[in-house]
Amino acid sequence: MSKKEERTKKETKTNTPAVPKKRFFNVEKRVGYTLHEMWKHKMSYGLMAPFFILFITFSLIPLLWSTGLSFTYWNIFEDPRWTGLENYVYLFVDDSLFLKAFTNTLTYAVIVGPVSYLMSYFFAWFINQVPDKVRPLYVLAFYAPALTSGVAMSVVWAVMFSNDSTGYLNSVFLNLGLIYEPIQWLQDVNYIMPVIIIVALWSSLSTQFLAFVAGFRGVDRELYDAAAVDGVTSRFQKLLYVDVPQTMPQLLFSAVITITSSFTVGQTIVAHPSPEDAALTIMLHLSDYSGTRFEVGYASAIAVMLSVMILGIGRVAFKVLGEKE
């Protein structure tokens, strides 16, 4: 075979279009493209499968099941009876306790949520400034209240805010002459919610606080040197221009955790039922109908509304703190 024929043969092979690989899904459609990508990265999805199985089994399916039950009347002992929107109508029109619980929960979430969020970030930033040798001691000191069990915390704070003269605060105020009779901290409707908020803030440095501590430890130290070249010298400027952008994933994670914990607050230092329902929350109202009255259909409607609130505010957090395309 001559050189000319060999060159012609090579050019023919080069110009021959490659045979497309067989595809199992129609990638022209969105669903098909998604399934194609999942099959393409099947090893990664296989490693994530245990999480998805647990999430679907214990979160998604119960949520869908609860949504279906919210349109029924079910007292556990009888079969569910379809009632349509009656539960939701009663929830917003006739259930005065739900409106009270909604107001209390919103008040608690508006104060405790942002304040604990900022406190966690500030203390984590503060701890990041101390030497490495003593940093674990600072982390333990700030995180210790979150490790305290609810029962032990209630006992300590119940003595602190005791309604008689033996309570620590009442005893101090009486000895200083600031008051002339004990304050009913846990019985007066004007003091119940502030007391609950104080106790909640005291123990609020939990998961989000540790996330911020880890986030600050992950910031590249070279970025501070690069920022110094651009004129960033003070600690506040480093926080604003280096730390905040670099800890944005932790800010988003902690925002979701804070929102969820703020709106799902249940039993507090004040016993349930509280005077004039001053400490009634949505979770306590839900548990009352599900665990005491066994009206599971109505309790499911409360749970659905609470989930919608959390999802809505969570979407706002993703819009504000999520990555911008």
UniProtKB/TrEMBL annotation:
The chain crosses the membrane at residues 45-65, 106-127, 139-160, 191-214, 251-270, 296-318. One of its GO terms (biological process) is transmembrane transport. Keywords: Cell membrane, Membrane, Transmembrane, Transmembrane helix, Transport. Residues 102-317 form the ABC transmembrane type-1 domain. It is found in: Cell membrane. CDD domains: TM_PBP2. It is a multi-pass membrane protein. Belongs to the binding-protein-dependent transport system permease family. This is Sugar ABC transporter permease. It comes from Candidatus Egerieisoma faecipullorum.
